[in-house]
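Section 3.1: Structural characterization of target chains.
Under the original work plan, the team committed to producing a structural model for every single-chain target entering the pipeline before any wet-lab resources were allocated. The record below documents one such target. The sequence was received from the expression subgroup and is listed exactly as submitted; it comprises 447 residues.
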Amino acid sequence: MKIHIISIGGRIMHTLALNLIEKGHLVSGSDDEIYEPSKSRLKKAGVLPNELGWDAQRINSNIDLIILGMHARVDNPELIKAQELGLKIMSYPEFVFEESKDKKRIVVAGSHGKTSTTAMIMHVLKDNKADFDYLIGAELEGFGTMVKLTNAPLIIIEGDEYLSSCIDRKPKMMHYFPHLSVITGIAWDHINVFKTEQEYFDLFDNYIDYHTKDAKIFAFENDSDLQNLVKRYRNKKNINNYNSLEVGKNGNILLNQKEYKVNVFGAHNRANMMAALNVCIELGISVEHFFESITSFNGASKRLELVNENSTCKIYRDFAHAPSKLKASVLAIREQYKDKRIIAIFELHTFSSLNKDFLPKYKGSLEMADEAIVYYSEHTIQIKNMESLSKQIIENAFDKKGLKVISDKEKLRSEIEQLRLDNCIVVMMSSGTFDGIDIKGLLELKL
């Protein structure tokens, strides 16, 4: 099949392209920006576009399928040409479902913890020699790609709530029709799409509702907003609550009076692990085999990932960007390193985090840090065509004593260079790149 991918450069989209090539499809693609490692991987596979940008001349009637990435807009000339020619156009969630409609589908949904929970399930299944496909939003040790679509009878899917594409306004997770779901919790995000908290909650209400009676849902018990939805479906859907695993000595997991050593930490990861355990039991993995496997799990990329350390300081990076994720990551570090100074460096990068009406949701999220820096880029705000922010608005929103708010790249660089890195834990948190500044490199020079 001849497939053209509009917006091929993204983390998921370029991985999907590579998977399709492996399966023997003829793949082409386009994008207006392609960064590493996508660029090198696409070049090696021979599908890196000769020129960046959109060109309607790339689209012709010989193309069997257009896969439309989320980054493309409705006025994209390639999309318009494909529509004029009447070509088949699918978003990647549509395509993933089409490829997995005959498989058993496990979907991990929720506002936070999706990637880690999905990664834990995948790690255990692989360690137990299971045959399965997957879709996950981060790189994971032991897995060469973020998407795998084969003839396996089972697929594990990270179910994102964001919209599928500019012409497919359905949330991605609503495409997959799961046989088994996890809902990790609900905390309002994506304010550019879900304008109110209620609208966001309604999305998860709809997600629960569209499960068949035979489908099973595992819902996190300690999330009051999620439980308010669960109560409505108590006698209509097969919903099972789960809680966090208990912590034993030295950060080990305690279950049925037995301790298990693990490499990840924090209350949120103990909840994620319990969700993963429930799913794996449903798939025939015993408790003993689950914990034998999970002991070698080191976490997904950029999820409290330890990137460097010396005798007195450890440096972590984390994908946290929403208030609930930020708070959970800082709390996890405080729990793990009670006697260390915590330095939190956070970038406001998403539509939600740069919205002055959403910012108050961050109140208290950095409270457990001893020192905190919040960075935002005026350039990013301009690119997103958003209203300008002031440092005072951000300071008021976080309500954190001693908080340093920085909007200048060079000032951020200088601030990092002046940090005292002894007896401390540093955590860098962002879904962006800190405006291209190599924070990790600057910190490592000081170790």
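The longest strand covers residues 341-348.
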